[in-house]
Design brief:
Blueprint (H helix, E strand, L loop, with lengths): L13 H22 L7 H19 L4 H14 L1 H19 L2 H10 L7 H16 L2 H18 L4 H18 L4 H10 L3 H29 L9 H10 L8 H11 L4 H19 L1 H8 L6 H13 L2 E2 L5 H4 L3 E2 L6 H19 L2 H12 L3 H18 L3 H18 L4 H13 L9 H10 L3 H4 L4 H15 L14
Antiparallel strand pairs: 1-2
Length: about 475
C-alpha cells in the first residue's frame, strides 16, 4: 500500500474533495444512531459503499471515468491481500487456542493473582492477559470484567475505579494482540505488516501501561478495602471444563519466539494454529470429540473437531454462565465481518484515490502540518474527531488511515508510524465517548456509566498523549530510509 500511486486532479477543489468525507461521516453517525452496536453487522459496510458512490458522483462531475475508478478500487483491494489472509489465520489460531485450553489456562492463572491490597493493578494485568489471549476488549469486559466488577464491589471499591482498571487492561491487550481485529486493521490501512506494527506499537504502549499500573498501585495503597476477593467459583468452572496445564504455554511461547525472530506473520500464525490443534488432541481430547459430534476419538473425529475449531464457531460450556461467552470462538468465519469492512473501506478509498480527493486532502493537511509533530497531531485529531462524529473505532482507523498514508510517505515516515498513531488515538479513545459504539457497549456491559469510569480509564486517555510526546521529542520515529536497518 505504501507503493500505491495516488492520483492527482488539479481541477478538484478542497471543498469537492471533502464532500464524500462529510457525507460519509454524516451517514455513519445516523447509521450508528439507528443500529447502535449492530451497525457493524453490515449497515456500516454498506454506508462505506454509499460514501464511495458520493465520491464517484464528484468524480464524474470532474470527468473521471468509471473504468479508472474500478481500476483504483481493484488496486486497493489487492493491496490488502496479506492482511485479509492474516485475519483468516488469526481466526483459526483463536479457535485452536481456545479448544486446546491455552486461553482458559491464561485466564485461570491470571485470576489467581487477585488480592484486595493489589486488586486494581491485578485487575489491569488480568484483563490485559485475557485480552491479549482473546484479542477482544469487548469479550474481556463482558466476561471476566463483569466478575471483577462484582468482586470489586464486594470489597468496597468504587465501581468507576474498577471499570477503569478493567478497560485499561482490556484495551492494552486489544492493541497488542495479533488476534485483535483493530490490531490487524491499522497496519492494513497504513501499509505495514502486522508484527512490525505490534513491535513498533510496544514502544509507546508498554510505557503507558506501566504508568497506568503504577497509578492504580498507588490508588490501591491509599484506598481502604473490606472483605476478600472470592474467585473460587470461576476457577472451579474453568478447571471443570478444561485440563489446565502450564505446558500449554509452550504454544504461545513458540509464537512469541517466531515474532521476535521476525518470522513472516502468515507462517507464524499457521504454525501457532497447527500447534494449538496438536495440543488440543493431547490435553483436551474430550472437547475435540464434542466439537466433532462423534462419540469417541478417532482419526476422523479428531480431524473434524480441530477443523471445526479452526473454521467455524466453537463454544465450550462451563458451569459458569458468565464465562460461556468468553469460551466462544468464531474461527475463520468470525473474521469475515472485519474482512467485509476492509473490502468496503478499500472501495471507498479506491474511488477517493481515483478522483484525486485523497491527494488534495493530504496536500492541504501537509501544508497545515509544517512539522512531523504537526502530522502526528493532525492524525490524532482526525481519529478523535471520527470517534466523536462517526461513533465507531473501526472507522476512526479506516478513514484517517486511508487519508494520511500518502502524507506519511511524503514526509519519509515509515508506515508503522501511522499504524501506531491510529491505534494510540483511534482504538483506545472510543470507549471514552458515551455515544460511540464502544462507550455504549462497555458502559452497558459493566453497568458503569462513561462519566463514572472516564477519569479511571487511565491507559485509554494517556495513549494519545504518549504518541504525541514521542513525536514532539523525536523518540523512535522510524523513517523509510532507516526501516530496513532497524
Amino acid at each position: 500500500m505504501t507503493d500505491e500511486h495516488l492520483v492527482e486532479n488539479k481541477e478538484l477543489s478542497i471543498w469537492e474533495a471533502t464532500i464524500p468525507i462529510i457525507a460519509l461521516v454524516g451517514m455513519l453517525a445516523y447509521n450508528v444512531y439507528v443500529y447502535g452496536d449492530d451497525a457493524l453487522g453490515g449497515s456500516n459496510q454498506f454506508v462505506l459503499l454509499l460514501g464511495a458512490a458520493v465520491a464517484a458522483i464528484v468524480g464524474f462531475l470532474n470527468k473521471v471515468s468509471y473504468k479508472k475508478m474500478i481500476e483504483e478500487v481493484a488496486q486497493n483491494v489487492k493491496s490488502t491481500t496479506g492482511a485479509l489472509l492474516i485475519l483468516l489465520f488469526v481466526g483459526s489460531l483463536a479457535g485452536t487456542w481456545l479448544v486446546s485450553g491455552i486461553i482458559p489456562s491464561m485466564i485461570y492463572y491470571g485470576l489467581q493473582i487477585l488480592n484486595p491490597s493489589i486488586f486494581l493493578p491485578a485487575t489491569v494485568l488480568i484483563c490485559a492477559i485475557i485480552s491479549i489471549a482473546t484479542g477482544s476488549s469487548w469479550t474481556t469486559s463482558a466476561t471476566v470484567g463483569i466478575a471483577l466488577i462484582g468482586i470489586g464491589k464486594a470489597i468496597g471499591l468504587p465501581l468507576g475505579m474498577v471499570a477503569g482498571a478493567v478497560l485499561s487492561g482490556a484495551y492494552f491487550g486489544d492493541k497488542m494482540s495479533p488476534l485483535s481485529d483493530t490490531t490487524n486493521l491499522a497496519p492494513a490501512m497504513a501499509g505495514t505488516e502486522l508484527f512490525t506494527h505490534i513491535r513498533y506499537m510496544a514502544l509507546t504502549t508498554v510505557p503507558t501501561i506501566i504508568i497506568t499500573i503504577i497509578i492504580f498501585t498507588i490508588i490501591s495503597m491509599t484506598h481502604e478495602t473490606v472483605g476478600v476477593a472470592d474467585n473460587t467459583e470461576i476457577l472451579a468452572a474453568i478447571k471443570g471444563s478444561f485440563n489446565i496445564s502450564g505446558w500449554l504455554f509452550l504454544v504461545p511461547a513458540a509464537v512469541i519466539f517466531m515474532i521476535i525472530k521476525k518470522t513472516q506473520p502468515l507462517i507464524a500464525l499457521l504454525i501457532g494454529s497447527l500447534l494449538g490443534g496438536v495440543f488440543a488432541l493431547i490435553f483436551q481430547p474430550d472437547i475435540v470429540v464434542q466439537l466433532s459430534g462423534a462419540e469417541s476419538l478417532t482419526f476422523r473425529s479428531a480431524y473434524t473437531g480441530i477443523m471445526n475449531a479452526m473454521t467455524v464457531e466453537s463454544t465450550i460450556e462451563t458451569s459458569s454462565v458468565a464465562l460461556n461467552d468468553l469460551f466462544t470462538s468464531g474461527g475463520m468465519k468470525g473474521m469475515l465481518g472485519t474482512i467485509w469492512l476492509i473490502i468496503c473501506a478499500m472501495v471507498f478509498g479506491g474511488v477517493m484515490d481515483a478522483i484525486g480527493a485523497l491527494t488534495r486532502i493530504t496536500q492541504t493537511l501537509l501544508s497545515m502540518a509544517k512539522s512531523v509533530f504537526g502530522l502526528f497531531a493532525s492524525t490524532v485529531a482526525s481519529c478523535l474527531a471520527l470517534n466523536v462524529t462517526a461513533s465507531d473505532q473501526y472507522l476512526a482507523i479506516v478513514v484517517p488511515g486511508k487519508m494520511f498514508a500518502k502524507a506519511y510517505e511524503d514526509r519519509g515516515l515509515a508506515p508503522e508510524n501511522l499504524s501506531r498513531t491510529l491505534e494510540d488515538s483511534g482504538t483506545v479513545t472510543s470507549v471514552l465517548i458515551p455515544w460511540n459504539t464502544c462507550g455504549a457497549y462497555q458502559s452497558g456491559v459493566l453497568g458503569v456509566s462513561v462519566s463514572e469510569y472516564f477519569v479511571y480509564a487511565i491507559f485509554n486517555y494517556l495513549s494519545p498523549f504518549m504518541t504525541l510526546l514521542y513525536a514532539a521529542l523525536d523518540i523512535k520515529i522510524r523513517m523509510l530510509a532507516a526501516k530496513n536497518k532497524s
